[in-house]
Amino acid sequence: MLAGRRVVLGITGGVAAYKAAYLARRLVERGAVVRTVMTDAATEFIGPHTFAAITGTRPVVDLFDADDVSPHTTLGRWADAIVVAPATAATLARLANGLSDDSVSATVLATAAPVVIAPAMHTEMWMHPATVSNVERLESFGYHIVSPEAGALAGGDTGLGRLADPDRIADAVAGVLPGGPLTGVEVLITAGGTREPIDRVRFLGNHSSGKMGNAIAAAAARRGAHVTLVTAGPGIEHPRVTVVPVDTAAEMAEATWEMAEKADVAVMAAAVADFRPAKALDGKLRRSDGPPMIELEPTPDVLRGISEMTDRPFLVGFAAETGGIDEAVAKAQRKDVDLLVANDVTAPGSGFGTETNQVTIVLPDGSTDPWSLLPKSEVAERLWDRIAELRKSEGTST
Ligand code: PMT
Predict the structure, then answer these.
(1) Given 123, 150, 176, which residue is the final one in a domain?
(2) In total, how many domains does the chain have?
(3) Is the pTM of the predicted complex or chain greater than 0.70?
(4) Which residue of 64, 89, 111, 335 has the lowest C-beta tally within 10 Å?
(5) Atom 21, ligand 1: which residue's CA is nearest?
(6) Tell me: the pLDDT tens digits for 162-198?
(7) Do 337 and 360 reside in the same domain of the chain?
(8) What is the CA radius of gyration of the chain?
(9) Mean pLDDT (the chain, rounded)
(10) 351 Cβ closer than 6 Å to some ligand 1 atom
(11) How many angstroms separate the CA atoms of 209 and 232, rounded?
(12) Which residues are 145's β-sheet partners?
C-alpha cells in the first residue's frame, strides 16, 4: 500500500527522535518516497544527515533558510500522507490550536493530506487533561493518533508514553492512504464471545478470542473499506476501523442493528450466547446458599435481525460446528445468509482461540467449498476474495 506513495515524516524534539530514523527506514523499505521535516529541537536529538542518508533528500529544518521560499506549503501539497513521529506534548498543543510556529506544525497546517500522529512523552504529560483534550481535538480533525506504548522512558523512568513501534506507525500510514478494491465500502463485523451476567462477578460465556473477526476486519481495512467492528473481544487498531466494544448479546444486537442500515457487507463472526440468565443477581451468589437454579431466556438473534431487514447488506454468517457439514448447509438456508462460513471447531488448530482455522464455504444453494487449515489472516483474505466474486455476480462493482 505504500509503494510509490509520497510520505512526509515530521520529527519533533523528544528523545524518541532517534527512533524516527527506524521509521524512515521502514517507510523507504515499503516503497514510499519519503521527505522529512524537523524542528530545531529535534536536531538536538538526531542529526539531519541521518535522514538525508536514509531518504536521499535533506530534511527541511529552518523555514527561512531553504532554497524553497515556502517549504512547508511545498511539502504539505506534495504529501500523500504526513506522519509526525515523535510528537511531543508541545507539538500536540500546537497542532490542536492551529499554530504554525515551527517547520513541522507549519507543514501539517499546510496540508490537505491525511495526518498520522505518534506521540511520545512522559506518562504524566500524556495523562494531563490538557494533552487528553488536545488529542481529542486532533482526532476531531480526522488525524489518526498512534497511541504510545508502555515501557522504558527517558531518564530511567518507565510507564505509558513510549513511542509506538515503527512498524505500527508505518502500518497506520499505509492505513490512512486511500485506495484498494473496497474503497467506499462500509463493512460491519461482529467478533468475540459475548458474556451474559449471572451475578456481579460471574457470566455465561464461550471461548471466542475475537481473532477470526479481527483478521476479517484488518483484511477489509487493508483493502480500503471503512469497518465497524462490534466486538466482545479486544479489537484492533487501524485508521479505518471503528471499534465498538460490547459485552452481552443484547448490547451486540443494539450496536450491530444500528450500524447495519448503512453497511454494504456484514460479517457475523462473533460467538453470541443463545441464552442468558433471565435475571442477573445484583450481588454475588454464595456457595453457602447451595447450587443455584438459573433460569435462562433466549437472547436476540443478531444475524436474523439483519437478514430480516428490507434493504439489507450482503450477509455472511459463521457456524461453529462440532459434527459434519449437513447442519451448516441447513443453517445457511435457515438463516437466509448470502454465504456461510462453517467452522470446524473440533479439528486440531481450528476454531476458538487458535491462530489457524479450518472452514468450509457454504452457499445458499447448498454448494460447499472446503478449505485446508490456514492462518486466520489467510482465511480472511480468501473470504474477501470470495465475497467480491459473489457481489460482482450480483452486479455490485466493489
Ligand atoms: O474468535 P476466535 O477465537 O478466533 O474463534 C472464531 C470462532 C470459532 C468464534 C468463529 O470462527 C465462529 O465460528 N463464529 C460463530 C460462532 C457461533 O456462535 O456460531 P453459531 O452457529 O452459534 O451461530 C451462527 C451465526 O449466528 C453466527 O454468525 C453468529 O454470529 C450468529 N448469531 C448466533 C446467535 C445469536 N444470538 N446471534 C447471532 O447473530
Answers:
(1) 176
(2) 2
(3) yes
(4) 64
(5) 319
(6) 999 999 999 999 999 988 899 999 999 999 999 999 9
(7) yes
(8) 25
(9) 95
(10) yes
(11) 9
(12) 117
